[in-house]
Structure prediction request, 102 residues.
Amino acid sequence: PPKLLNDDGDVMVLRPLSYCAEVDLGKFAAAMRFPIIPCDLCGSQEGLQRNAMKAMLEDIEKRMPGRKDTMIRALSNTRPSHLLDRKLFDFAALNETLAIRQ
Prediction:
C-alpha cells in the first residue's frame, strides 16, 4: 500500500507513486529531464524474483488487458476470512457459526 507502518511499528513507510505505472513514471521523468541515477541495489541481491514477476505480470496484462488493475482492486478489498491466516480469522469456528444460523 502507499502508506503503511513497519512490523516494529516505529516507522511509517510512504510510497506516493505506488499506483503509478512504471512506463508513465519513465515518461514523466524524461519530460521533466530528471537525472537517471544508476542503482543496481534491487538486482544485486541474490534470490530476488523481481524481474521474473515483472515479466509475468506484463505477460498476463498482454493476454488479458486490465488484469493488473483488477489485481490492485482485489488487494484493496480484502477480508480476513479470505486470507487463509488462522491468526486473523477463526476458520475452526465456521461450522459452529453455520450450525447456529440454521
Remarks:
- Strands lie at 3-5, 12-14.
